[in-house]
Specification:
The protein is of the alpha/beta class. The chain has helices spanning 2-26, 67-75, 98-107, 117-125, 127-131, 133-136, 209-214, 230-239, 256-260, and strands spanning 31-36, 39-43, 48-51, 85-87, 112-116, 140-143, 152-156, 159-165, 180-185, 191-194, 217-221, 242-245, 272-274. The protein has one domain (30-273): Metallo-beta-lactamase, Chain A (4-Layer Sandwich). It binds zinc ion (2 copies). One zinc ion binds next to loops.
């Protein structure tokens, strides 16, 4: 009898242990914080990513990253400490500033950069780049995608990154812009997708069926204009394999149509949302 009790106690303890492990594994603290325009901080327990964080152009319409936030990013004050990656979707002035990026990388020597060739070329053309070349070169990851190329992928310190080149909005007028749609799986398994200024035409997405199918995205960040066309909504709902999406690149004066669409979107810097659903 006594032995049975010990066994049952052991089983109970084992069960408690296993369920605790399951709970702690399930208890994601992953979130996305809005910085401005298409700039986002994505974080889980062990990894932090910044998308399109440095830019100065708002075209009189879009949200700049407020001074206090950009100061905190440069200083590395929480939550902007221990950033692992900076991603650049494309080298337009409302997403990218080469000089800011260089200054940031110089002072944060643990940060890896993943960016299209057009952004890397601008970065390397800065005179200060050559002075810091030794520290910078190993941390630059160029995504060399031409239009129509197969998906690119790379795993860097347990973070799985892939990208496809999707034309810039306004296609075919800005066909030369290397706009990347990134899909990133963080250490604890949460996957996000940043779409830059992607064009909402399904012809661009259908050739990458296998790529979308390979990996479920927990949260995608499309530019808000995707919500305004049936084709855009169809891409989000039926093609890219995302469970949830949060619109970005939202004008400071939020369009009424966006509010009434009932879609999730970011419009106020520091807004934070969960990126993982159970
Ligand atoms: Zn653009
Ligand atoms: Zn833009």
């Amino acid at each position: 009898m006594k032995r049975l009790r010990i066994v049952s106690l052991a089983v109970t303890l084992l069960f408690l242990f296993v369920s605790r492990v399951a709970v702690s594994h399930d208890n994601h603290t992953s979130s996305a914080t809005y910085l401005g325009n298409a700039a986002i901080l994505v974080q889980d327990e062990s990894t932090k990513l910044l998308f399109d964080p440095f830019f100065h152009k708002d075209f009189g319409i879009y949200q700049l990253v407020p001074k206090d936030i950009s100061h905190a990013i440069f200083q590395g004050t929480p939550p902007y400490n221990n950033i692992n990656f900076v991603f650049i979707s494309h080298a337009h002035d409302d997403h990218f500033s080469a000089i800011d990026l260089l200054n940031y990388l110089k002072h944060h020597s643990q940060v890896q950069l993943v960016a299209p060739k057009q952004a890397i070329v601008q970065l390397m053309a800065l005179s200060e780049f050559s002075e810091n070349e030794k520290s910078l070169m190993p941390r630059l990851h160029t995504v060399p995608l031409g239009y129509g190329d197969m998906a690119w992928s790379k795993t860097i310190s347990n973070t799985h990154i892939s990208a496809v080149r999707i034309p810039h909005a306004g296609w075919p007028s800005r066909a030369g812009v290397e706009n990347l749609v990134f899909r990133v799986t963080l250490n604890d398994g949460v996957t996000v997708m940043h779409m830059g200024d992607a064009d909402p035409n399904d012809d661009h997405y259908l050739p990458y069926k296998t790529h979308w199918r390979q990996q479920v995205t927990d949260t995608a960040f499309p530019p808000y204009w995707f919500f305004f066309s049936a084709e855009g909504r169809d891409i989000l709902d039926d093609i890219i394999n995302a469970k949830q999406y949060i619109g970005v690149h939202v004008p400071v004066e939020v369009p009424k149509r966006l509010i009434s669409s009932k879609k999730l979107f970011f419009s106020k810097p520091s807004q934070t949302k969960k990126i993982h659903q159970h």
